[in-house]
Specification:
CATH architecture of the largest domain: Roll
CATH superfamily of the largest domain: 2,3-Dihydroxybiphenyl 1,2-Dioxygenase, domain 1
Radius of gyration: 15 Å
Number of helices: 3
CATH class of the largest domain: Alpha Beta
Shape: globular
Helix content: 10-25%
Order of helices and strands: EHEEEHEHEEEE
CATH topology of the largest domain: 2,3-Dihydroxybiphenyl 1,2-Dioxygenase, domain 1
């Protein structure tokens, strides 16, 4: 059995965040979604759980970071092309997110990033295949 990863993010509005991630092309697993949470399908075995802040707070005794003012984590997704990187950033902007920094081309790697409506940062990279 392959392992899965679930990235849990605290959000102000589950419905707004759900619409944002669906708008940029990710699926929603309804089996693990309700008024307090939405399960976003990033890829096989990679999921993002969008948890309403009060629900998220039930899993920890620590303060919940405000991702708009504090960096809690930098999530990074590998994309199959430069065009896919740019396309996802553009979709994020069209659905309530914003570009984070300028695109960077380092030759072997191309990257750009966006912030979702709650300020969570998503790095997107395309790694150029190196000859063996």
């Amino acid at each position: 059995m392959a392992q899965s990863i679930f990235v849990n993010l605290a959000v102000e509005s589950v419905q707004q965040s759900r619409a944002f991630y669906a708008g940029i092309g990710f699926g929603i697993n309804e089996q693990y979604s309700n008024e307090q949470a939405a399960c976003v399908v990033i890829a096989d075995n990679i999921y993002v759980m969008l948890l309403a802040k009060p629900f998220f707070a039930g899993f920890t005794d620590k303060a919940i970071a405000d991702a708009r003012t504090t960096t809690e984590v930098l999530n990074c997704l590998d994309c199959d092309s430069r065009e896919r990187v740019d396309h996802l950033v553009k979709l994020a902007e069209q659905h309530g997110g914003k570009a984070y920094r300028q695109a960077q081309d380092q030759g072997f790697m191309y990257g750009h990033a966006f912030e979702d409506p709650d300020g969570h940062i998503w790095e997107l990279v395309h790694m150029v295949a190196q000859p063996s």
